[in-house]
Each structure stands twice: as C-alpha cells, then as structure tokens.
Design a protein that fits this description.
CATH class: Mainly Alpha
CATH superfamily: MFS general substrate transporter like domains
Largest sheet: none
CATH architecture: Up-down Bundle
Distance between the termini: 33 Å
Radius of gyration: 23 Å
CATH topology: Growth Hormone, Chain: A
Number of strands: 0
Number of domains: 1
Length: 486
C-alpha cells in the first residue's frame, strides 16, 4: 500500500470514529433538547458554511507557516522567474498536504465541546454553552470537511477516484450506522446525558487517530513516483500513468488570500458545469437535514429514542452499501453518473413520500384520539397501526439511505474531476464550494423546520421535492458536469 492509500485509509478510520460520536448524538439532539436543539443545529450549520468559505485561506496560512524554510522571494523582485518560483513554492506547499492534516486535527477537536454541552440537558444555565459550542463545532466542521476534500482529491488517481469517494462516504456513514445502533443499546441502560458524555470522549479519539494515521507527505517525493506505484498495482498503461502523474500539477492554482479565494469561487460558479451541479449540491444539503431533522421528528413523535436510533442506523447501513456500489460502478464499469443519480433522486423522493404519509397518519391518529372514547379494541388497533407504521418508517429510511449514498458519492467524484481534469477550480475551491452551498442549505432547512415543524406542516416537503425535481432536470444539461468527455 503506497503512502497516499495509507493516508486515505487513516482518513476513513478517523471519520468513522468521529461520526460514530457525532451522528449518534445529533440524532438525539432535537428529541432531547426540543426547539433549543434545532436552533443549535441551525447555528452549527450556519457557522459551518461561513467557516468553509474562509478555510482555503486558512489552509494557505498553515502551509506558509509550516514552510518557513521555503519562503517566497522578496516582494520587491517581481520578475517572471521569481513569479514562477512563487508558484512552484505554492504547489510544493499544497502537495505536501501538511496544512490539510493540521486542519483535520484541529477541526475534529472542536466537536467534543458541543457533545459535552448536550449532556447538560435543558437547564437554563446550559443554553448559552450549547449555543456557543454549536458555533465552535461549525467552525471546526468547515476546517475538517474542506481539508478532507482537498486531501482526498490530492491522494486519488483517475483509476480509483470513484472507489475512494465511495469508500470514504461509506466509512463516514458507517460511523452513523454503528453509532446509532450502539446508542440504541446504550439508551436501554444509561440516561441520555451519560450517552452524550461518552460520545464526547469518543469524538476526541478521532483527533488522536488523525494525528497518528493521517500524516503529510514526507521528503521531496514526487507525485509521479506515487502514481507510478499505483500504476503497477492497477495495471494501467504508461500513457495513463503519465496522465495520472500530471493531475495534481495541472490543477488550478491554489490561492493565498480570502479575496482571491472568493474570486475563484465566483469564477467557478460562473461555469456551466458547476451551475449544472449546483442544484444537486443544494439538494444534498436539504436532504441531509431532512433525514436528520424532519425524519427523526416524525419518528420520535410516535416512538421512543431507541426507535429513532435504530431507524437512523438502518438508514446509514443502506447509505454505506449504496456508496460503495456507486464508487465501483463509476470506476470499474464506467456507468453513466446521470443514470445513477436518477436512481438516487427517485429513491430519496420515494423515502420522503413515505415519511409524509407517516406524518399524515400521526395527524389522523391525534384526531381520532380527540373524538373517540378509550376501549380495549381501540388500544389493540393502535398497537397494530404502530407496528405497521414502523415497517414503513424502516422502508423510508432505506430509500433515503440509498439515495444519499449515490448522490454524495457522485457529487464528490465529479467535483474532483472538475478540479483536476478540467482545471475549473483548485481542489480546495471545489470543496469550499461543496461545503458552503451544501451546508448553507442544510442550515436553511433546519431554520424552516424550527418555524414549520415537520409534524405539523408540509413546508419542508415542498422545498425537498422542488430541489429534487430541479436536480433531475439538470441531468440533461452540460455533459462535462457528469461525464469524463468534453
């Protein structure tokens, strides 16, 4: 296993550990803290979006600090040779991945305070701690996810990009699945406050695994040597090996300031290929908060926290399987990404409709309780209806998990391709774009849910379905957004 593959393996392991803790906790935040929990999640994702916007500049600052021995030439020397040397310095700093590994460690460490604050419960004295720590987590998440996307892109090749995108997403969602199943068991023996406290400790373990296993590139090892080893393992031809070796050196320039980062982000947004992907990225943000907020709200209204954890675990398990299969289909069988996305969008729409049906059944049950008198027969029918609805909830979870795995794996891979193959943006800009747009939509959806709860209103379904339809319509747009060919 070469150095890049070892780094990616460590990245997958660390994200499994971190999101074992975070997803298990976040799915219990709204049921436990109520409106305060939804507000804290909205703050979290708002801070995440802002943090993602500034992270490329932050990464460049880290790179500059860690490369003091390779400082740029004096600013007074503005001849072409010095400009070329500066560009080479930037690429060497970028390719070392030292900034990305540092940001991953820092970002992961900022998850623990929020999980600890949630363990304090609904006490008035804990509210400001929960809101403040949710903002800190959002800042850390911006560092974490943009650095992750940059490191993933730099460490992949043309032949394994889809597979590693799928494997990464599967590892990330494995944390979701295992964390929720573990929480379901823990809640039968421990109070929710103790579960939150334990999960905060688990999240800190991910910081340790990132520090141990996700190391920057050492020495002056050239990109071509790394891809030459990959070529021997994958059996690709010499011509493809040379193309792989040049991928990182061909990518768009890494910027060095916030203004330059925003300009490059705006330039990327003005390209047809990125505009074609934009509705999908918005939809991903909406559906993430849909199954993390609306879905869990509907389930928790009629069932207990243990059921919420079990359903969330099943959703994540379906997500894992679909993301791995999607990565393999993209790399090995070269299945058209638009075909896969069609399946993913339909699966998510079907799952959301089942949740909507369950929500309507809850409203009908409440109406019946208000107009009927208690009896043994009504109690028996209520128990049967509850058992029946639980199966529908599990089917909805599977549908949303399958769709989420497909949509995220395709989006991550295509952003990498647009970055390194078509040079529409740097790899940092690509994931700055993904996280800013995706997370901003997640935050907006949580705000919608706080104002129009899913158990009482259909507003979130209107937003969800409109974005799904718009994403589907964009599949017939610019081919470069979804295919390898120009």
């Amino acid at each position: 296993m070469n150095q890049d593959n070892r780094r990616l393996t460590g990245l997958c392991l660390s994200f499994f550990v971190l999101f074992f803790a975070f997803f298990a906790a976040s799915n219990q935040v709204a049921p436990t803290l109520g409106d305060l929990g939804k507000t804290s999640l909205a703050i979290l994702y708002s801070a995440f979006a802002v943090s993602a916007l500034i992270t490329p500049s932050f990464l460049q600052c880290l790179a500059n600090r860690s490369n003091n021995d390779n400082n740029k030439c004096d600013n007074n020397n503005d001849n072409n040779d010095n400009k070329d040397n500066n560009n080479n310095d930037n690429h060497q700093q970028s390719n070392s991945l030292r900034a990305e590994t540092t940001a991953l460690i820092l970002g992961s460490a900022l998850y623990a305070p929020y999980l600890f604050a949630c363990s304090l419960g609904t006490k008035d004295s804990a509210r400001w701690i929960q809101l403040l720590s949710s903002g800190l987590l959002g800042i850390g998440a911006g560092f974490l996810w943009v650095a992750q996307g940059s490191l993933l892109t730099a460490s992949c090749t043309t032949q394994n990009r889809g597979r590693w995108s799928g494997i990464f997403w599967a590892s990330f969602m494995s944390g979701n699945a295992v964390g929720n199943f573990a929480t379901a068991g823990a809640l039968t023996k421990f109070p929710i406050s103790s579960v939150f406290l334990g999960l905060s400790g688990v999240s800190l373990l991910s910081t340790l695994t990132l520090w141990i296993f996700v190391r920057p590139r050492t020495g002056n090892m050239e990109v071509s040597n790394m891809y030459a080893r990959t070529t021997l393992l994958t059996g690709v031809g010499e011509e493809n090996a040379n193309a792989n070796a040049n991928e990182n050196t061909m990518e768009a320039d890494i910027s060095s300031g916030l203004y330059e980062d925003i300009v490059k982000l705006w330039q990327a947004l003005n390209t047809t290929s990125v505009q074609t992907l934009l509705p999908l990225i918005l939809f991903i943000g909406c559906e993430n908060s849909f199954w993390g907020g609306a879905f869990t709200d509907v389930v928790s209204t009629k069932h207990d926290s243990n059921d919420v954890a079990m359903v969330s675990g099943v959703l994540a398990s379906a997500d894992i399987i679909s993301s791995i299969l999607t990565g393999m289909l993209l790399d090995i069988y070269r299945i058209d990404a638009r075909l896969l996305l069609s399946v993913g969008l339909l699966s998510l729409i079907a799952g959301s409709i089942l949740v909507w049906m369950e929500k309507n059944k809850l409203e009908m049950d409440v109406a019946m309780l208000n107009t009927s008198t208690p009896s043994s027969s009504s109690s028996s029918s209520s128990s049967t209806a509850s058992s029946s609805s639980m199966w529908m909830i599990y089917v909805a979870g599977i549908g949303m998990g399958v769709g989420d795995g497909i949509c995220n794996t395709v989006a991550i891979m295509r952003l990498q391709v647009l970055s390194v193959r078509y040079r529409l943006m740097s790899r940092r800009t690509a994931f700055q774009l993904f996280q800013c747009v995706n997370v901003a939509m997640t935050s907006i959806t949580f705000v919608i849910l706080s104002q129009y709860p899913a158990t009482k209103s259909n507003v979130v379904w209107y937003v969800f379905e409109c974005l799904a339809i718009l994403s589907g319509l964009c599949l017939i747009g610019n081919r470069q957004a979804y295919t390898e060919e120009d």
